[in-house]
Design brief:
By secondary structure, the chain is mainly alpha-helical. Helix content is 68%, strand content 5%. Strands 1-2 form a two-stranded antiparallel ribbon. Strand 1 (2-6) and strand 2 (12-16) form a beta hairpin. Helix 2 crosses helix 3, helix 4 packs across helix 7 and helix 5 (140-151) crosses helix 7. The protein is elongated.
């Protein structure tokens, strides 16, 4: 590309300019980011989906939450120091946002969930169903803390930091939530006998 300038005395000076397209440089960076993000999703996608399912108790909503969390994680890929922690935080925030939007969470009462026939082949599904029913009995805060602390295995300090509460709140809420889960599971076992 050439450009011309006019001096004070009226002469025209022509200069050769080299234009370097910024897309080429951005494409290489985007390609590297895409590869890193793809590896991240391949490694942690199932864990994030399981976390989302434990947070909301519905497979379809869990898939939507996971997808939205991955989109936001990708957008903040270079800012996130720990992408997995960032994605988990986004999952928890998105779940809270759905509660705020709807003003209250609509859960199916454990009594209204369909009963499945008992079979050893379906034991894992029954355990998962039993867990979902028990988690539905917890308050949203208890569910988030129990899932992050005991299902994911995060330390109390990380759960507190991620949810913006104190470590004492995490401990007491987890204790009350686990007591509720134990009572619900004990009742279910007694009914199964």
């Amino acid at each position: 590309m050439t450009a011309g300038t006019r001096d004070d005395d009226g002469t025209v000076r022509v200069e050769q300019l080299t234009v370097v397209p910024t897309r080429a440089r951005g494409a290489r960076t985007r390609s590297a980011t895409d590869e890193q993000f793809s590896a991240f999703v391949a490694e942690h996608g199932d864990d994030l989906l399981r976390t989302a399912w434990l947070l909301c108790g519905d497979a379809h909503r869990a898939e939507e939450l996971t997808q939205q969390a991955l989109v936001r994680t990708y957008a903040a890929w270079h800012r996130a120091q720990d992408p997995l922690a960032y994605a988990r935080r986004v999952l928890a925030n998105l779940r809270v946002d759905t509660w705020r939007r709807r003003r209250r969470e609509v859960l199916t009462a454990p009594e209204d969930l369909p009963e499945h026939a008992r079979s050893d082949v379906h034991a894992r599904t029954e355990d998962r169903d039993q867990l979902a029913r028990a988690l539905a009995l917890l308050s949203p805060r208890q569910r988030r803390i129990v899932v992050l602390r005991h299902m994911i295995g995060m330390p109390e300090a990380e759960v507190a930091a991620e949810l913006g509460v104190s470590v004492g709140t995490v401990k007491s809420t987890a204790s009350r939530g686990l007591a509720t889960l134990r009572a619900a599971l004990a009742t279910h076992q007694e009914e199964a006998r």
